[in-house]
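cron nightly-structures :: item 1 of 1
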Amino acid sequence: MLDYAATTNQDWTPMTQSKVTLTTLREMKARKEPITWLTAYDYPTARLMDAAGIDMVLVGDSLGMTVLGFDTTLPVTMEHMVVFTAAVSRGPSAPSSLATCPFSRTRRNLPRPSAMRAG
């Protein structure tokens, strides 16, 4: 079991981790350093990932099945992704967040500015 007390302050903030950027990821890859990714769909989970030192937080359309109770990811809309990406983005101070576009959106050639603003 992960010992959070050893890696975080009393308020669950990371002790020494700085913001992860694309440059950071390129440097980690060049050093052959592992890059950690986990999926989150909400603010509290994103905060815990931050405290655990996770490098990247992914918000995927799998939230349709894991959170919203759909049988598949097909009903997930861009509006769903914007809401969940915004919640996750407010959580971590160091990891970067990455959201995928829902399957239904990738099938159409439509602009996606709202998701970019959310996270």
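cron nightly-structures :: done
Residues 34-112 form one domain.
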